Amino acid sequence: MRKLIAFLMMIGVIAFFYFYTDGLSERNVARTEVDRILEHDIDNNYPATPRDVMALYNQMVRYLYSGRIKTEEIEVVLMEQRKLMDDQLLDTNPFDIQLLRLKNEIEYNKQTNKKIIEAQIKDVTPNNYFGTDNNMCRVKVIYYLAEQGRPNINVYQEYILIKDEEGLWKILGWQEVEPFTIISKKDLSTESI
């Protein structure tokens, strides 16, 4: 009987540590993603190119719509995201309203199990720049979405970035566009001639 009790206690201790450490790793993944976003230190180390701005912005978008973000992290990530936006865009989207909309959208996506699984930026070439002194740039992005019970969805967006008075590239706006393809350097090297 003592052996049985000792055995059951040992199983209980193992189960406790298993569930305890499993919960810790989930919390660390979420905390680590927010830490990665904050590590960029946008205030002191702003992204240099339109592509860099979009890479950081998309890192935030992926986390916001990953299904893993916690409610208390949404505001922190949104505040960082807004640092990448032009004042004109910020003026038309007050923080409180944007935060409320974002929380509602994230909650809806959690209920429908919809999430962004990847974002891919199309190469930025000299043809993407326009405006006075090439102070504006078009950047195309494909968002790959997964939703339970439905085939994956691709969303094609074109972002317009503008160089502000300090020479920083800021997001001015975006719109959905017709589907396009992204050819990677890897794809080019494996193409048959």
Give a verbal description of the structure.
α3 packs across α5. The chain has six helices and five strands. The radius of gyration is 22 Å and the shape is globular. It has helices at 2-39, 50-64, 71-82, 87-92, 95-111, 185-190; strands spanning 114-121, 129-130, 136-147, 150-163, 169-176. Residues 188-193 have low confidence and may be disordered. The termini are far apart. Strands 1, 2, 3, 4 and 5 form a five-stranded antiparallel β-sheet that branches. It has 193 residues and is α+β, with helices and mostly antiparallel strands. The relative contact order is 0.11. It has a single domain, classed as Nuclear Transport Factor 2, Chain: A (Roll). A hairpin with a 5-residue loop joins β4 and β5.
CATH second-level architecture: Roll
Average pLDDT works out at 85
Radius of gyration: 22 Å
Share of residues in helices: 40-55%
Classify the fold: give the CATH topology: Nuclear Transport Factor 2, Chain: A
The SS-based structural class is alpha+beta
Q: Give the CATH level 1 class.
A: Alpha Beta
Element order: H for helix, E for strand:
HHHHHEEEEEH
Distance between the ends: 76 Å
Q: How many helical elements?
A: 6
| Shape type | globular
Low-confidence stretches: 188-193
Tell me about the biggest sheet? 5 strands, antiparallel
Number of domains: 1
Strand content: 15-25%
How is the quaternary structure best described?
Answer: single chain
Would you report the number of β strands? 5
